[in-house]
Design goal:
With about 80 residues, the chain is an alpha+beta fold. It has one domain (about 15-75). It has three helices and two strands, in the order ββααα. The chain has a two-stranded antiparallel ribbon. The longest helix is centred in the middle third of the chain and has 12 residues, at about 35-50. The model has no long low-confidence stretch (mean pLDDT about 85).
Length: about 80
């Protein structure tokens, strides 16, 4: 198991300890199947970026800085 902001992998998780399995997520009012290729790409990318997650989370959590970057790159596209 590996949460969004985690940099270490938890486990192994025994099958009898699993309470639920996510098959679909809701994002901005849309339903996304976890088997969706686009979603799988993002999951794999986020896994590869695991060593950089502390830096990424620091940038994202610094909202004024992050908002300034987003406004610079995506001005008028939201």
């Amino acid at each position: 198991m590996l949460g969004d902001a985690q940099t270490w992998i938890e486990g192994p998780i025994e099958k009898e300890n699993v309470l639920a399995v996510v098959t679909t997520i809701m994002r901005k009012g849309k339903s996304i199947e976890c088997r969706n290729q686009g979603y799988q790409f993002i999951v794999e990318l986020w896994l590869l970026l695991r060593p950089l997650r502390p830096l990424i989370m620091k940038i994202v959590c610094n909202k004024p800085f992050f908002a300034k970057i987003m406004n610079t790159f995506f001005k008028g596209k939201t």
